[in-house]
Amino acid sequence: MDLERTPLLTDLYELTMLQTYYAHGMTEEAVFELFMRRSSHRGFFVAAGLDQGLEWLETLTFGDAELEWMRRSGLFSDAFIETMAGFRFSGRVNALPEGTVFFAEEPLLQIVAPLPEAQLIESRLMNILHYQTLIASKAARCRLVAGDTPVIDFGMRRAHGGEAGTWASRACYMAGFEATATCLGSARYGIPPTGTMAHAFVLAHDSEAEAFERFARNHPDNVVLLIDTHDVRRGAERVVEVAHRLAQDSIPVKGVRIDSGDLAANARMTREILDEGGLQDTRILVSGGLDEYRLETLLADGAPIDGVGVGSNVNTSADQPFLDSAYKLHYFRGKPRSKHSSGKTDLPGRKQIHRHYDGAGMMQGDTLGLMETADAATGLLKTVMENGRRLPAGDGSLADARERCQTQLHALPEGVRALREPAEYPVTLSAELEELLTQTAPER
Amino acid sequence: MDLERTPLLTDLYELTMLQTYYAHGMTEEAVFELFMRRSSHRGFFVAAGLDQGLEWLETLTFGDAELEWMRRSGLFSDAFIETMAGFRFSGRVNALPEGTVFFAEEPLLQIVAPLPEAQLIESRLMNILHYQTLIASKAARCRLVAGDTPVIDFGMRRAHGGEAGTWASRACYMAGFEATATCLGSARYGIPPTGTMAHAFVLAHDSEAEAFERFARNHPDNVVLLIDTHDVRRGAERVVEVAHRLAQDSIPVKGVRIDSGDLAANARMTREILDEGGLQDTRILVSGGLDEYRLETLLADGAPIDGVGVGSNVNTSADQPFLDSAYKLHYFRGKPRSKHSSGKTDLPGRKQIHRHYDGAGMMQGDTLGLMETADAATGLLKTVMENGRRLPAGDGSLADARERCQTQLHALPEGVRALREPAEYPVTLSAELEELLTQTAPER
Lengths: 444, 444
Prior knowledge:
- The structure is a homodimer.
- By secondary structure, the first copy, chain A, is α/β, with parallel strands linked by helices.
- Chain A folds into 2 domains: 12-135 and 320-439, Alpha-Beta Barrel (nicotinate phosphoribosyltransferase), CATH 3.20.140; 147-315, Aldolase class I (TIM Barrel, Alpha-Beta Barrel).
- Chain A is built from 17 helices and 18 strands.
- The first copy, chain A, has helices at residues 12-23, 50-58, 64-73, 78-85, 115-120, 122-146, 161-174, 183-189, 199-203, 208-218, 232-247, 263-276, 292-300, 312-315, 398-409, 414-417, 431-439; strands at residues 29-36, 45-46, 92-95, 101-102, 109-114, 151-153, 179-180, 224-226, 255-258, 283-287, 307-310, 325-332, 335-336, 351-357, 363-370, 382-386, 389-390, 427-429.
- A 7-stranded antiparallel beta sheet of chain A has the order 13-12-1-5-3-16-17. In chain A, strands 7-6-11-10-9-8 form a 6-stranded parallel beta sheet. In chain A, strands 14-15-18 form a 3-stranded mixed beta sheet.
- In chain A, strand 6, helix 7 (161-174) and strand 7 (179-180) form a beta-alpha-beta unit.
- In chain A, helix 10 (208-218) packs across helix 11.
- The mean pLDDT of chain A is 95.
- The interface between A and B is large, with 107 and 107 residues.
- Chains A, B: Pathway: Cofactor biosynthesis; NAD(+) biosynthesis; nicotinate D-ribonucleotide from nicotinate: step 1/1.
């Protein structure tokens, strides 16, 4: 069972529900929507993960191992297992192109498919889109705060498993990061790879100077030296010594990295030492426990920092490690449907989103209306899959998504971009949708 | 490139450092240790992930796709790429058996291998062990708070990717959960699968009663009905109606699930309705935003709850989404080594852990000493791999790990188990280690 392809990466209840749906011929077209509920820590979200979601849908089949597990479990009928042996996803997908900025209650994905197909895919589809959206949304905040300073993803080691580490490279790059330290992220998605050295490298040598010089001569094109293994001041001084020897062989020290202590103070001290040593072109990179909040402080007071590496705080979206994502049935058998319990009222019907801009190109507000009467050309949700096959609209490149994201981030109203207590972006319901909402009062 | 096997699931700097190590023949034996620094939110950790770590080490090779990526990157010499084509892990691994309770600064894993081998594996090994340990440690807190109430893992959809979702099933089961909703977790690790139904199932039917009855007749052995799609009181009343019809065909309603609102109040109301309706044996499960803190409140006031499902808060370890894990070089070329910068002083040398119990079998404290002079029979770190091959000691079953964890959790001093501001468990350094620490003052 291939982790990245198996349909068993789902919740058991998807399968038990399906058995009943098939048993009762409940295979008419259903519409499910994936959306996020409001988050007090995020003024906006960035849609990500669609490419992996569509790839999974296109290849979704039950192999022998999966069917055998179903048999052994004793939970399913033979007839149902046989049905699943022939399972394919045959539906339509409408979605926000990756990199699109969106808001609470707006569908980022809409599945139109026979009820059992649309139901089965819930768990994994959410698993894919939720995580990448979570990280792209976090990374976008770092990108906005960092201004022109390059930000790099360093966090794979503490990401939650390998898929998360790899997807985080992708989501961060989409949000505008410059590079990733994760080789697989680079290999799979064509993201520039980057890296310096670990403290262990310095410790494995008998002196810091020897470690620096060996590394530099072995990687003459990309010399970035880690200077805080023992003492940052001495580390910076050693860089100057070594740089003079390396200069004789035309090897430039491109950068140094500081990973501990007061990063701003260390960067200032290091800048002075490097400048006095004639290394005005050597860049200073910092890392260690950074996120958008600490970046804001660090960069606000003008510390001489030329690049930042972020890790665990971003890869785990530490201040908000999950979003209140939902995948809900909103239309079935010709009827809008929605859950109304306990104050969480979902919006029924098949929806479309329209966005409004002011004269300066800044986003003013969105309207949530119904797909049936919407203008497809201007609606944000695009049809990216039909009959279980991707359409060209579902084939956007990562570079396009990155560009889209940058453009939209800069069109966001200031207050909505705020790191703390962001303003609520205006999302209004169309008159039709309002009416539908009052009509579909809870069944009693 | 298979996500679960590829050596490119690593940081670029591991490869650039390796190129220098090989170029300079720095292939002598090194000792790296993986440990956690102190966490104010966790009084103890539970070791997990070793099985996946060892499996990865045993199968670690560079395939054609990996070598091709290295070539295309332009970052490596031909000689180095050729070396990596023949790469195998040939080292020894000493580790805490999975399910072992451990504390800050104690190595949960010790790698003894030629320097480049021990270095390369850093990123992925930490990625594997850090996440499972993070989740087992979180889940153990839920297990302790829940007492005898079964706890179930429901969180795959919002876990960070598929590997995290599947590993969380395993880590939670190790920590004492009863079952998992994730089919792949069940299929891979033999964990009991469990599930009820989604709100969509109820919404897809024209009445709640019809949804309940269809589901029950289709899954007569495991009828658990979700009663909060519209209104919990009406949902419970419908369960009673339906149960009477089902009883005529000897189909019992095993349980109901409540997923929203005031769970304690809803459980009390539901219990009354079920009891009055003659359904005293029907269990009440609750879910929705639960973690150890909310479980404590929920169960403390005696709400009639027979089982709980936990999801995102546990699968993402939301109050502490990553641990301050470190993988550090502690011995190389006959010399203990450690990083001393900025107040974070690592403990040098090859370490072993001994644990002390009082007469009642409660844990009193640990001693961290040096492996060279330690009693191997009683030390907590066991040799689980030698020459890159697993030893029988590295082949423990998940059931054993689960039992080990339960035993140790109940031997933990009360204060150390506390959910908030846990007491610090006494970990003392042996005289030898203290001496070594003073000897290895920072190189200046």
